[in-house]
């Protein structure tokens, strides 16, 4: 069972945001927590789930909109990437209003360095994650988004802020799974460092539950009346997710970035796998020294993805990767 601390969410309307109280309580009896798949030693050796664990992961993607797979990313790879990205996060935080923040400056949109030195297949093309996304979406999903959400400790004199509850699918979208987010935390995520608030089972709703136009910083917000209704059925949770895990989330699921009152920068990578039939036109931009790495993974049968890339020199990639948009400025819709 995933270790979870429950944030008893006394919902308070503050303008357009919905705020959960900081009070914590024991889990309510019968409440369903995020499902966790724990691969066996043999599954780790083979770098894929067996039939039973794959079925469990797929079931909970459909049922809850989210599943956690533990202990499938080496900590050494995570720590090496985290060291670099924490430095970058501070650069973005110091940009203030000009930075790529999502809803508030405590939640930053941050890309990883897109060059070979910082590219770890165990993280970015994790075979356990791709096995599940392929089972749900179809063979060779399209990987067209690679970024991260960074929950930042507040600057001196600033107050920690949370995001409104929202869906990343802030457009008319299919009523069945079409995109899964592969989240990889670079540290253990807890309520104390801004673990994401999750509203499990809300991935089967449509844009009639939302307010705010696509492209606005605050688009995709869930209307207060629907939050109150959903809270009575299945309250939100703020789970602890172990470092070394991957989290697979339906793009439609309601969630909210939470305050990070700690002194630790909490970075959670986000790669989006789209169904092979889904006509999203986005492309990745990578340094050209990554090309042979991806080609070699594909030749070895360890990629399992279509990866549309605009290749640039590694020097150009390092100059531009922090100059990206905020989350809601990306268009996850498909072409007509």
TrEMBL record:
Domain of life: Eukaryota
Protein name per Swiss-Prot or TrEMBL: Phytanoyl-CoA dioxygenase
Natural source organism: Hypocrea virens (strain Gv29-8 / FGSC 10586)
């Amino acid at each position: 069972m995933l270790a979870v601390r429950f944030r008893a969410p006394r919902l308070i309307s503050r303008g357009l945001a919905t705020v959960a109280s900081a009070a914590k309580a024991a889990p309510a009896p019968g409440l369903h927590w995020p499902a966790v798949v724990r691969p066996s030693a043999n599954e780790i050796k083979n770098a894929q789930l067996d039939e039973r664990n794959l079925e469990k992961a797929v079931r909970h993607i459909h049922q809850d909109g989210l599943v956690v797979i533990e202990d499938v990313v080496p900590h050494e790879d995570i720590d090496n990437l985290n060291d670099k990205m924490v430095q970058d996060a501070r650069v973005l935080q110091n940009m203030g209003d000009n930075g790529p923040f999502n809803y508030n400056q405590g939640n930053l949109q941050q890309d990883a360095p897109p060059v070979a030195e910082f590219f770890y297949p165990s993280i970015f093309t994790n075979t356990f994650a791709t096995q599940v996304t392929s089972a749900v979406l179809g063979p060779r999903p399209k990987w067209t988004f690679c970024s991260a959400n960074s929950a930042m400790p507040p600057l001196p004199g600033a107050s920690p802020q949370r995001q409104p509850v929202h869906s990343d699918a802030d457009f008319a979208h299919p009523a069945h799974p079409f995109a899964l987010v592969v989240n990889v935390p670079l540290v253990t995520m807890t309520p104390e460092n801004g673990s994401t608030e999750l509203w499990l089972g809300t991935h089967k709703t449509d844009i009639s539950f939302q307010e705010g136009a696509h492209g606005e910083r605050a688009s995709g917000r869930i209307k207060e009346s629907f939050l109150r209704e959903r809270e009575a059925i299945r309250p939100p949770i703020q789970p602890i997710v172990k470092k070394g895990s991957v989290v697979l989330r339906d793009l439609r699921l309601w969630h909210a970035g939470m305050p990070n009152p700690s002194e630790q920068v909490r970075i959670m990578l986000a790669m989006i796998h789209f169904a092979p039939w889904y006509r999203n036109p986005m492309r990745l931009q990578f340094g050209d020294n990554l090309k042979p790495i991806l080609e070699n993974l594909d030749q070895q049968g360890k990629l399992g993805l279509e990866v549309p890339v605009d290749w640039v020199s590694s020097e150009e990639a390092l100059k531009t990767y922090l100059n990206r948009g905020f989350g809601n400025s990306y268009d996850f819709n498909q072409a007509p």
